[in-house]
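Notebook p. 47: complex prediction with farnesyl diphosphate.
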Amino acid sequence: MILSGCKAGTSPLCILAHEGKTMAKLTREQIEALGLSPEHLPRHVAMIMDGNGRWAKARSLPRALGHRAGVTRLKGIIRLSSDLGIEALSLFAFSTENWKRPVEEIDTLCSLFVEFFIKEFDELHENRVRIRSLGDISKFPPRVSGLIRDAEEKTKANDGLKLNIAMNYGSRDEILRAARLAAAEPGGVTQESFERHLYTADSPELDLLIRTSGEQRLSNFLLYQASYAELIFTEDFWPDFSDERYVDVLRQYARRSRRFGGLEDTKQ
Ligand code: FPP
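Predicted complex, structure tokens below:
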């Protein structure tokens, strides 16, 4: 596990980080040393990585550098999720509405996507991460969509973290698409046929959705999947969402009582 900006010996996370490992599964003892327990970890976490622009603005930097810092942070969060044994991580990288942004910003994001898939692919693949996009990636230039399709194909048999990257994703689009596809089946639209056509069909049910930067809304992300998810909003801009903060959010999640409409802390 690699962590930036922590001094050796200052916290269990830093101690682990300074063992110098990259993406090493944590033992139960190590997870418990973080104040967590494997039984109370979410199986599927989603993140709305908000605040890159404001992070940059606060430092009088161009927005592009905010997005770059956001990708750096994203790599740490993917590693920690995998190390903790979380089954699925869904990240909101680019929404169907983000096309409204200036073309220069879209280009920057596309270049960052390309850089990410080129630089990080080997480590992710070695660690059995399965990469999948959520959304219609055909709208991206081929240099982006081609890399994503390639990463999906090469990692499709991997049995580690399911890394879902939402790109040109919008929940309303996804719901309409799933409804249309299910309606075209002989059995028509049932909960089962509908859910089979969601982009997240082969990930476990969403347990926890985190949004950074102080905004408290879902912004068209995983609306159906979030039906029973715990929602946690943090004040940090995404580039400041540290591993320590993530662990803290996971501790909060573990304390929540989940009743799924029933009376007990168990799925009915
Ligand atoms: C929201 O911040 C963030 C985005 C629209 C992009 C998020 C993308 C990344 C972190 C990079 C993802 C990269 C890969 C490889 C998946 P904002 O720009 O809306 O911030 P603001 O609200 O402060 O302006």
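Notes: Residues 1-10 have pLDDT under 50 and may be disordered. The longest strand covers residues 88-95.
Next step: compare against the earlier run before touching the bench.
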